[in-house]
Amino acid sequence: MHFTTTILSIVFTLAAPPASSPPEAAPKIPDTVFVETEPADAKCVAEVKKSAKKGDTVVVKAKVGGRTEPFVKNRAIVVVADRCMKSCDQIPGDTCTKPWDYCCEPPESLKANTMTVQFVHDDGKVIKSGAQGVHGLEPLALVVLEGTVVEKDDKGTFVVRVKRMYVEKPANVEESKNTSAEKPKNAEPAAPKP
Questions:
Q1: Beta strand pairing status for 57-64 and 43-44?
Q2: I want to staple 147 with a disulfide (CB 3.0 to 4.6 A). Which of 18, 88, 156, 162 is the partner?
Q3: CATH H-level, domain 29-169: superfamily
Q4: What stretch of H or E contains 77?
């Protein structure tokens, strides 16, 4: 009996699956990409799309949005729109539940005024982790980014690989009242939380 128990114990030990190590956490966008100072000489999305070529370094001011889901699930890819376009929350009386989708804009306007930005590893591959919520990245967040144009075509595709990004912090009501006279005429109000 003791011999049988020993044999069975050895068989079960050999047949048991190897102990698995815990899954590695998905890589995140490095904190060093996000900067506290806005990159200088930023231009609007539409202007950059017209003039920039593949390989150019660009500095763009934009707003997260341009489609119903501006964030790609499990990938550090975000769609941004030109700040000159009005999102639905800026249109009086509009009750759109996803104002960042710019549903009132015609398709040609969206094509000219939106672009895709991506965060990548050192090897150039897109980070396999969502960008929403990272350092304040949410729909309607105002951003200024510096990066390299990696894709451009006649169909409106325009992709920028981000080197650094500044995400504007939403101002509280008192700060808005005190600084509204100092804001440039094209400055947008702080983005409401969806």
A1: parallel
A2: 162
A3: Bacterial OB-fold (2.40.50.200)
A4: strand 77-82
Q: What amino acid is encoded at 138 in this protein?
A: E
CA-based radius of gyration for the chain: 23
8 A C-beta contact, residue 149 and residue 55: yes
CB distance 99 to 89 below 8 Å: yes
Q: Could you read off the pLDDT of 115-164 as tens digits, one per residue?
A: 999 999 989 999 999 999 999 999 999 999 999 999 999 888 999 999 99
Q: What's the whole-model pTM score?
A: 0.74
Q: What is the pLDDT of residues 45-91, one digit of tens each?
A: 999 999 999 999 999 999 999 999 999 999 999 999 999 888 888 88
Assigned token pair, 14: 């050999």
Burial environment of residue 74 by CB neighbours within 10 A (0 to 12, 13 to 18, 19 or more): exposed
Longest dimension (CA), the chain: 91
Two tokens, residue 105: 């804009």
- The CA distance from 117 to 135, in Å, is 15
Scanning the chain, the segments in alpha helix (DSSP H) are 2-15, 45-51, 107-113, 173-179
